[in-house]
């Protein structure tokens, strides 16, 4: 029988610990990704503005 060490959960939302011993919580990862995406100010990928030509000869 192998005795294992319990998993430690890291709740730091900035993910600065950079640890191989702790696992980031779902809430920490969600907050980190939300802040990274918000900081990048990327356009909404589902928002389309412009014309769409679906004919066989677009030129």
Describe the protein's architecture and organization:
- This protein has 59 residues and is of the alpha+beta class.
- The chain has one helix spanning 26-40; strands at 8-10, 22-24.
- The termini are far apart.
- 0% of the residues are buried.
- The model has no long low-confidence stretch (mean pLDDT 77).
What attributes characterize this protein structure?
59 residues, alpha+beta, two-stranded parallel ribbon
SSE blueprint and pairings:
Blueprint: E1 8-10, E2 22-24, H1 26-40
Parallel strand pairs: 1-2
Question: Averaged pLDDT, please?
Answer: 77
Shape: elongated
Strand order of the largest sheet: 1-2
- Beta-strand share of residues: 5-15%
In whole angstroms, the N-to-C terminal distance is: 71 Å
Structural class: alpha+beta
Order of helices and strands: EEH
Query: Ranges with pLDDT <50 over ≥5 residues?
Result: none
* Biggest beta sheet summary: 2 strands, parallel
Mind telling me the C-alpha Rg? 22 Å
Overall number of strands:
2
Q: Count helical runs.
A: 1
What percentage of residues falls in helices of 4 or more residues? Answer: 25-40%
């Amino acid at each position: 029988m192998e005795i294992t060490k319990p998993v430690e959960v890291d709740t730091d939302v900035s993910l600065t610990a950079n640890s191989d011993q702790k696992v980031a919580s779902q809430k920490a990862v969600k907050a980190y990704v939300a802040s990274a995406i918000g900081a990048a100010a990327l356009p909404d990928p589902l928002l389309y503005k412009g014309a769409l030509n679906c004919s066989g000869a677009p030129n």
